[in-house]
Amino acid sequence: MSAKTLIVPPDVHPAIGYAHAYRVGGTIYCAGQVALDIDRNLVGKGDFEAQCVQTYENLRRVLAAAGATMDDVVKTTVFLTDLEHLPILRAVRTRFFGDPGPAGTLLVVKSLANPDYLIELEAIAVVSG
Questions:
Q1: Exposed/middle/buried for 14, CB within 10 Å: 0-12, 13-18, 19+?
Q2: End-to-end CA distance of the chain
Q3: What is the mean pLDDT of the chain?
Q4: Whole-number Å distance between alpha carbons of 127 and 129
Q5: Which of 59, 35, 56 is CA-nearest to residue 114?
Q6: Which CATH superfamily is domain 4-126 in?
Q7: Phi, psi of 42 (to 5 degrees)
Q8: What pLDDT, in 10s, does the model give residues 24-63?
């Protein structure tokens, strides 16, 4: 069994009560990312596109801290609070992953941990070694 390594990205807000990611062998498990800046301020209150971009950027930074890139992502799960945001999500996802991007699951939920969050994104990435 591989040991797990805690990933603490230096350029993402501190995780309080959870871990941003763990690496186990060549697999990186990323917790749900939201649109917080490094000081834990919400980016884009009420602005889905701004939140979406910040969320994907936070994921990119978490992956970088683990020695991975967006190209290494094999699976994502996205939580939205409004299905109307799907076209914007697709455009931002393509900007960060290209097309077709990784396997993905989309869920529409009533609320996230903070009622001002409009999106949450978790991912699994695989790298060699």
A1: exposed
A2: 14
A3: 96
A4: 6
A5: 35
A6: RutC-like (3.30.1330.40)
A7: -70, 130
A8: 999 999 999 999 999 999 999 999 999 999 999 999 999 9
